[in-house]
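pls read this protein.

:::
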Amino acid sequence: MLVQIVIGTGLLLVNISLAAVAAMVLEGILGRAHGWLLREPHQPKLVLLIAGVSLWVLGVVTAGVWVWGLAYLKLGVFATLEEAVYFSLVSFTTLGFGDVLLSHEWRLLAGMEAANGFLNFGLLTALLIEGLRQVRRGQIEYRRKRD
């Protein structure tokens, strides 16, 4: 059990670090594009912002799934990469289909991965909303100053 907790904690820290770095990079990108995002026309830029940040979030989630999947494969929990990544995707997204299960000796990892995914989705959703809020607020202020 202790081995599972140590490995799971390490994987959680890797994923949290990936998400944090991705958030910082995204903040930098949005910071550089801030002036452009504030100028008219606003609506197409909001659509582009939502689509871009959503794809960014999907990329971060995909990276998290692969980190766990590759760990399962390296630990010998699953025989194939496809099975390891599939289980990881089902666990990370908290779907938990139950058609593929971990052996008794590794089952704590599934719960830890689900907690990791749940946390990532919450944090990344907050990032999406905050980015949209900041840009929209800036657009409104820009329009107000212009008028």
